[in-house]
Design brief:
By secondary structure, the chain is mostly helical. The protein is built from 2 helices and no strands. The mean pLDDT is about 90.
């Protein structure tokens, strides 16, 4: 009977060790999940920060390029208008052409 009691004590001790090991594994799993969650949150925050920084840089570059293009466009339009205003008009030849086209009075 003494042997039987020792065997039961050993089995009980092994069950207690197994329960302790299971508890340690559970704690490790909880800790790992916690660390992964924290790392994921930190990585997302860093990603969002970098995206924001890059977005600001791209928007700044876009605004600068747009401003340059608008300035260039305005200069071209102003130059075109100036050229049109300074254009020498040949009204006599234009009137002759209109007479020929509309009234067929003379050949050009």
């Amino acid at each position: 009977m003494a042997d039987n009691s020792k065997e039961i004590d050993v089995i009980n001790h092994l069950l207690e060790v197994e329960k302790a090991a299971a508890a340690l594994v559970e704690q490790g799993s909880v800790e790992a999940d916690k660390r992964l969650s924290e790392a994921r949150i930190k990585a997302n925050q860093e990603f969002q920060k970098r995206v924001q920084t890059e977005t600001e840089i791209l928007e700044k570059n876009y605004e600068q390029e747009l401003s340059k293009l608008n300035d260039n466009h305005q200069q071209q339009v102003s130059s075109f208008k100036s050229d049109l205003l300074n254009l020498n008009q040949n009204t006599s030849d234009f009137n002759k052409l209109l007479d020929q086209l509309l009234f067929n009075s003379q050949k050009v």
